[in-house]
UniProtKB/TrEMBL annotation:
Pfam families the record matches: CysG_dimeriser, NAD_binding_7, Sirohm_synth_M, TP_methylase
Record's protein name: Uroporphyrinogen-III C-methyltransferase
Molecular function GO terms recorded: uroporphyrin-III C-methyltransferase activity
Family: Belongs to the precorrin methyltransferase family.
Pathway per the UniProt entry: Porphyrin-containing compound metabolism; siroheme biosynthesis; precorrin-2 from uroporphyrinogen III: step 1/1; Cofactor biosynthesis; adenosylcobalamin biosynthesis; Porphyrin-containing compound metabolism; siroheme biosynthesis; sirohydrochlorin from precorrin-2: step 1/1
Length: 480
């Protein structure tokens, strides 16, 4: 069966729905959203429909079907659980040349209700001509995740200036280029940043100029999460689909990179920019070069770009050079590694706070406030600590943290090869050496780390490699 696709303007038109259950309710909700004047006929009404009748939003025609119900309606939907009645309604509608839909019965239906993705005023409708509605729903889900929610605003903006766009870009090819630029460039970016006025200004400035499309010079700083690709945000996935060029760190997993647009240029700036000191400057230079060339640049970083990721410096640099930055937060490894090791970072029985620290800051560890960090009933999540475990344990113990304070090291967190090594603080360096812990690894110190033993759930190794001797965890007082 081949269907003719059609978008109907039902605003103010009477439409009949026969049936009063939850299926009818869903159909009616969509009809009301399109401005139709809904009349319902049904023996019983579900509570939502009864309420809508009481509110005067829909009319209840009666309980047993009457052929007059079809008089002067434009469409009819039969959604009862009585197949004979559904067939009768369809046959009568056919005689009166009214389009009818029988829910879940393609053969009896003269029109079908597609699965839709709404980015009002943009509507995307999907139909399998009744062959496999479940598949249409899956395709709808995919489109939902791909398409930004600001897309509707872009369409509305284009609608508002349609006449002017046609006037200023009379040539069809030039007009197409202009619309391409709207979708891929700074106007859409401004809408995503919830800056409608800036978006409008950009559109108008470009229209007034001789440029074919709004010039892009923007970079998306995107957090790729800790490694498991399913921890990417929808926004990050969309950015990967949109990117012309991706500058990524070595830590970004292959599985995440595999989700990017196939023809996007991928640059491993971890490798390419080798030497420690020149590295950041080279990254800045590359970002600027690609952004100025008008490419859609995604700077992809492990975890979150603003948590020990130097995202702040990159943003400052780009803004200084007049490049607009969008930031897409990612799941930082402290949060993800703790979760994948079964450690609730702030379990209310054991921890009042959580501190995110780095073992490799600008300053030496001597400058840190160890007496504060060594207080009990708090959790430390230490990034980049593998080569400094000895020093860290020494400082914490010297500042008074108990020797039996639990720790857990999560190596390759969220990846198939994740390992969790746990023990007591006094054994931290020896234990890590014995198990040859390698970067990337996240160190968690604090009472909650012992919970890794109880709640391990991810990976083959569901017990930590080295267990804490069942230490008794002092619980926090309720008022503490
Ligand atoms: N911006 C990142 C951190 C970058 S610093 C974030 O928000 O997570 C790099 C450090 O992150 C590593 O040394 C390690 O401590 C931690 N890390 C990143 N990915 C990790 C992973 N999959 N497992 C364990 N630690 C990880």
């Amino acid at each position: 069966m081949k269907l003719y696709p059609l978008f109907a303007d039902l605003n103010g038109l009477p439409v009949l729905v026969v049936g009063g259950g939850t299926v009818a309710e869903r159909k009616i909700a969509a009809l009301l959203a399109a401005g139709a004047q809904v009349r319902v006929g049904a023996r019983t009404l579900c509570s939502a429909l009864a309420e809508w009748v009481a509110q005067g939003r829909i009319d209840h025609l009666g309980t047993s079907f009457q052929p007059e119900w079809l008089d002067d309606v434009w469409l009819v939907i039969a959604a009862t659980d009585d197949s004979d009645l559904n067939a009768r309604v369809a046959a009568m509608a056919q005689r009166q040349r009214i389009f009818a839909n029988v829910v879940d019965d393609a053969a009896l239906s003269r029109f079908q209700v597609p699965a839709v993705v709404e980015r009002t005023p943009l509507t995307i409708a999907i139909s399998t001509a009744g062959a496999a509605p479940a598949l249409a729903r899956r395709i709808r889900e995919k489109l939902e995740s791909m398409l930004d929610h600001a897309l509707g605003e872009l369409v509305a903006l284009a609608q508002r200036y349609r006449a002017r766009i046609i006037e200023r870009r009379p040539d069809l090819a030039a007009r197409r280029a202009f619309y391409d630029g709207l979708l891929d460039g700074p106007v859409m970016s401004a809408l995503r940043c919830r800056q409608p006025e800036r978006a409008e200004r950009l559109l108008l400035d470009t229209l007034a100029s001789a440029e074919t499309a709004p010039r892009k010079a923007s970079v998306l700083l995107v957090g790729a999460g800790p490694g498991d690709p399913s921890l990417l945000t929808l926004r990050a996935l969309r950015a990967l689909n949109q990117a012309d060029v991706i500058l990524h760190d070595q830590l970004v997993s292959d599985a995440v990179l595999a989700l990017a647009r196939r023809d996007a240029e991928r640059i491993d700036v971890g490798k390419r920019c080798g030497g420690r000191h020149t590295q950041q400057e080279q990254i800045h230079r590359l970002l600027l070069e690609h952004a100025r060339a008008g490419r859609c640049v995604v700077r992809l970083k492990g975890g979150d770009p603003f948590v020990f990721g130097r995202g702040g410096e990159e943003m400052e640099f780009l803004q200084r050079h007049g490049i607009v930055c969008e930031i897409v937060p990612g799941m930082t490894s402290a949060v993800a590694c703790a979760a994948y090791a079964g450690i609730p970072l702030t379990h209310r029985d054991y921890a009042r706070s959580v501190h995110l620290l780095t073992g490799h800051g600008k300053e030496s560890p001597d400058a840190m406030d160890w007496p504060v960090l060594a207080q009990d009933h708090q959790t430390l999540a230490v990034y980049m600590s593998v080569s400094r475990l000895d020093e860290l344990a020494r400082h914490l113990l010297a500042a008074g943290r108990r020797a039996d304070t639990p720790f857990a090291i999560v190596e390759n967190g969220t990846l198939p090869q994740q390992r969790v090594i746990s023990g007591a603080l006094s054994d931290l360096p020896t234990s890590a050496a014995r198990h040859a812990v390698r970067s990337p690894a996240l160190l968690i110190v604090g009472e909650v780390a012992a919970l890794a033993n109880r709640h391990a759930w991810f990976g083959e190794q569901t017990r930590p490699v080295h267990q804490v001797d069942e230490c008794v965890l002092p619980e926090l007082c309720a008022d503490g």
